[in-house]
Amino acid sequence: MGPLEIKRVFSCIQCGKCTGSCPESGRTPLNVRILVRRSQLGHGIDNSHLWYCTSCGTCTLRCPRDVKPSELIFSIRGLLVESGEISLSVQKALENTFLQKNPWGRARTKRAEWVSKAGLDVKHIKEVSEKRLLLSCCVHAYDPRCSVIPVNISRILGRCGVEFGILGEEEACCGNEIRRLGERGLFEELQEENTSNFRKYGIREIIALSPHCMNAISKEYGSVDFKVYHYTEVLWMMIKEGQLRIEKEYKKRVIYHDPCFLGKQNGIFEEPRNILKSISGLELIEFSRSRENSLCCEGGGGRMFYEVGTNYERNAKIRVNEAFERKAEVIAVSCPFCLMTLEEQAVEKGIEVKDISEILMEVI
Amino acid sequence: MKILVFVKRVAAAQEEELKIIKDGEDIDLSKLPFKMNDWDSYAIEEAIRIVEKAGGQVAAISIGDRESDDVLRRSIAMGAKEGFLLNRDKPIIDPVLRAKLAFNFIKGENVNFDVIFTGVQAEDDQFGVFGGYLAALLGLPYASMVVRIEDLGEGYMVVRRELEGGLIERIKVSTPCILSIQTGINEPRYVSIMGIRKASQVERKVYEASLYMEGLFSGIELLKWSYPPKKEGAKLLPGDMDAACKELLNILREKGVYQ
Q1: CATH of the structural domain A3-82, one choice from 1.10.357.10, 2.40.160.20, 1.10.1060.10, 3.10.310.10
Q2: How far is B9 from chain A (nearest CA, A)?
């Protein structure tokens, strides 16, 4: 920990707002307030508790003393990474990212296979004059369920005549989860590689498909001379300006789940809702915990690569149960991690989980 | 105890569909990342675990071009004390030639050791010859496929070897000796980027391989790369679900799978 982080830890007044806000505290062994207190006193902590954190950021956002408890967790994870005291699955995710630039260790040469598989004609950014980059997350690039999202967005942008390009094999993990797993050095390498590519191709605008990538690039890469948008911002702009026309009805009751990295951490609440509201026939309903209070799906902070104890009810299940009680037919999401965690639970309840781009493709 | 471990830098090719280029003369590795040979990671980890318990030091040796420094840095980050690179731009495809080069280097530079570890084989050429041939040249005992080192005694080691048919052989090998280490003997530790950066500050000695190759020649020459013949593809059953299921049952009956 650096001096600034130590100062922050000692600013804690033990008000407990962090623990009260945490989507893991109370049901799992993670107790953020106790963690900070033990750090203040120099007492040992149970390292296994740290891996329950989903990096939703609520503790840091609500802390009245700017202690940034989630950053403390990443720092302690960092010490464990340096000493090699990490689980094998986390180790593999980090090694894979070092080697193939994605946590699953899939070949980097296949990063843009979603383009050819869908029969699309998407250009490399160097061949595009607008220098608008469509940036997919590693999940979009390699997971067959999520690869439909870059395909959809490419088709929508193409149909509206919006010029864009991709980095293809040069695209690397943004490092958002890597930093949160505590591998600061690897995050810096990814940041350096990505930033150098953005500079090399003179990128002026990035459309990030994942809120996690948007967050890392816009907030954690230092000063950048281009604008980073989440795709829902771009699509809403296009709908508002009449560039993207919705021509069909969608007669379903839809509940929207705010992803932590889009909503509470980056303040994008309206654009996804506005897109859904602009679809005639679609009845938009809300979760009891929505917007800033949205319940984390538990897909972030490296939790995609680490299986914690299973003796507690998963947030995704709580979320799906509420959607079911509210008679929602579709849970709309705008983050690939949320899509995967919620869909796993929703299948049993017969509720569809759809990325906003999937709903749009049915109505344009 | 001083342990020498031979480590090799190989292309990470498992996930790839490799392309043959130059009319069969070469394969295109230009876009592939490179890493430490999997078996060698286990070998270096095992060596480090031994010296952490029993004292001593580990030295990593790599035969390859300057880029092979990567695997030496990684070895040092894992806990090796020093790294030697036998530098040669052109790959040596003959494992016997590599063993002879290693032999000349060890003798020529008076490299001391109690034990030499190699991986069972390399991911790229899969010969599995290097350790055994080097042992023969040095006139030392050799044990392959080592899955456990049980005991380190004065002048001997007790090791377990993995054999076919689910058998394990427990043997006593007198030292100095050469062991080829099988994957799964341990779980290689994580090496952070910070760890690799720190390891970069440790000097790795570079020796020109050509100095130790006088009079040596490659007994193996690459003639041509080719793809294995394509096997028959899957059979798609046409028609609607009922017809396809009936056809499937017929096929299963024919093959004797379903009575």
Answers
A1: 1.10.1060.10
A2: 13
Residue A333 bridge partners (DSSP): A355
Q: How far apart are CA A307 and CA B40, in angstroms?
A: 29
The domain ranges of chain B are 2-212, 231-259
* Residue ranges of chain A that CATH labels 1.10.1060.10: 3-82
B2-212 has which fold?
A: Rossmann fold (3.40.50)
Could you tell me the two tokens for A305? 């690569």
B70 CB within 8 Å of a chain A CB: no
Residue of A nearest to B190 (CA): A84
Helix (H, G, I), strand (E, B) or coil at A327: coil
Question: Could you read off the pLDDT tens digit of each residue along chain A, which spans 364 residues?
Answer: 777 888 899 999 999 999 999 999 988 999 999 999 999 999 989 999 999 999 999 999 999 999 999 999 999 999 999 999 999 999 999 999 999 999 999 999 999 999 999 999 999 999 999 999 999 999 999 999 999 999 999 999 999 999 999 999 999 999 999 999 999 999 999 999 999 999 999 999 999 999 999 999 999 999 888 999 999 999 999 999 999 999 999 999 999 999 999 999 999 999 999 999 999 999 999 999 999 999 999 999 999 988 887 688 999 999 999 999 999 999 999 999 999 999 999 998 999 999 999 999 999 9
Which among B32, B35, B194 has the least Cβ separation from residue A82? B194
Question: Looking at beta carbons, which residues of chain A come within 8 Å of B11?
Answer: none
Alpha-carbon gap, residue B156 to B146, rounded angstroms: 15
Q: Which of A87, A88, A106, A109 to mutate to test the interface with B (most CBs of B within 10 A)?
A: A109
Q: Do A185 and B190 touch (CB under 8 A)?
A: no
What SS3 class is residue A183?
coil
Q: What is the pTM of this model?
A: 0.93
**Number of Cβ pairs < 8 A linking chain A and chain B:** 46
> Do the Cβ atoms of B190 and A94 come within 8 Å?
yes
Q: Give the three-state DSSP class for A351.
A: coil
Q: B221: which residues sit within 8 A by CB, 6+ positions away?
A: none
Instruction: Using an 8 Å CB-CB cutoff, list chain A residues near B191.
Output: 84
Distance between first and last Cα of chain A: 51
B238 at the A interface (CB within 8 A)?
Answer: no
- What CATH architecture applies to the domain A246-363? 3-Layer(aba) Sandwich (3.40)
On chain B, the residues whose CB falls within 8 A of the CB of A186 are 192-193
Residues of A in contact with B30 (CB under 8 A): none
DSSP state of A220: I
Q: What is the 3-state secondary structure (H, E, C) of B182-197?
A: CCCCCCCCCCCHHHHH
Residues 6+ apart with CB under 8 A from A16: A33
Q: Touching check for B197 and chain A: CB below 8 Å?
A: yes
Q: Which residues of A touch B190 (CB under 8 A)?
A: 81, 84, 86, 91, 94-95
Q: A185, B12: Cβ pair inside 8 Å?
A: no
For A261, the token pair is 């990295």
Structure ipTM = 0.89
Instruction: Tell me the Cα Rg of chain A.
Output: 20
**Which chain B residues are closer than 8 Å to A94 by Cβ?**
190, 192
